[in-house]
Write a structure and sequence with these properties.
Helix content: 10-25%
Oligomer: single chain
Largest sheet: 7 strands, mixed
Number of domains: 1
Strand content: 25-35%
Distance between the termini: 6 Å
Strand order of the largest sheet: 6-5-4-3-2-1-14
Number of strands: 14
Length: 245
């Protein structure tokens, strides 16, 4: 799988880092994982045809992870009125209620082509050759992380704190995309610090660590060194439009 980091930052980041999103590509097939604000423009900068994106995975419903969904759906509708009938959205329990609230404010255009909604609650699904599993992160009551198992294995933490069960869920993956929000001295509940991200990856025995969801105060040149005190594998600090194989 080829993965493009569409957004590596937060709502507090400067223009060099958009909020969260990943573009997953396997052959000619593509999917999105999270869809924060300004991500639609990232797709356009890459000349991605939004009509070719028929799968979206959401980790949770904070706006820095999902705010561009309605613009994305409207863009597709304006290009082809039936396009959204061919879209499948996976997300946490509560997806249908959350989506229904937003859809009720949009008028008739969205009702003409509603996407398929699948709530992930311990159920396994398949995307192409990958088995997709989720695990709760407790960042919010509905937040989930994703694991894709195929020829290679990938873990996407979404927003999370340091949680032993989640570490076990991520065990042995080839590439872990792990949030790394804050410096250790700025610890906040529901988010990882640099040292926690390193300890998480070390305990999970991940092959490679890619850190993202960086707040400005943590986005410093010494971030790999701070993580490397605990994790001895390769560390990549995510950047917008970076590609990871």
């Amino acid at each position: 799988m080829n993965i493009t980091i569409l957004g590596s930052g937060t709502l507090l980041s400067d223009v060099s880092r958009k909020p969260c999103a990943f573009l997953l590509q396997q052959g000619r097939e593509r999917a999105l994982l999270d869809l924060g604000p300004a991500i639609l423009y990232q797709l356009k900068s890459l000349r991605i045809d939004v009509l070719e994106l028929n799968t979206v995975f959401f980790t949770h419903f904070h706006p820095d992870h999902c705010a561009d969904l309605i613009p994305f759906l409207l863009n597709r509708y304006l290009l082809h009125k039936e396009a959204n009938r061919h879209l499948t959205i996976f997300g946490p329990v509560g997806l249908k209620s959350w989506f229904g609230t937003m859809a009720g404010l949009q008028g008739s255009w969205l009702q003409q082509g509603l996407p398929r909604l699948v709530e992930m609650n311990g159920n396994k699904v398949n995307w192409l050759d990958y088995e997709v599993n989720t695990w709760p992160t407790h960042h919010t009551t509905e937040s989930i992380a994703y694991r894709f198992d195929g020829e290679r294995t990938y873990f996407f933490s979404g927003d999370t704190g340091f949680e032993p069960d989640l570490i076990e869920f991520a065990r042995g993956v080839d590439v872990a995309f792990l949030e790394c929000s804050h410096r250790d001295e700025d610890k906040m509940d529901g988010h990882l610090t640099a040292s926690e991200a390193g300890q998480f990856a070390a305990r999970a025995q991940t092959g490679r660590l890619v850190v993202n969801h960086l707040y400005p105060e943590n986005d410093t040149d010494d971030l790999p060194r701070r993580i490397g005190r605990f994790y001895k594998g390769p560390v990549t600090v995510a950047a917008d439009l970076m590609q990871i194989d």
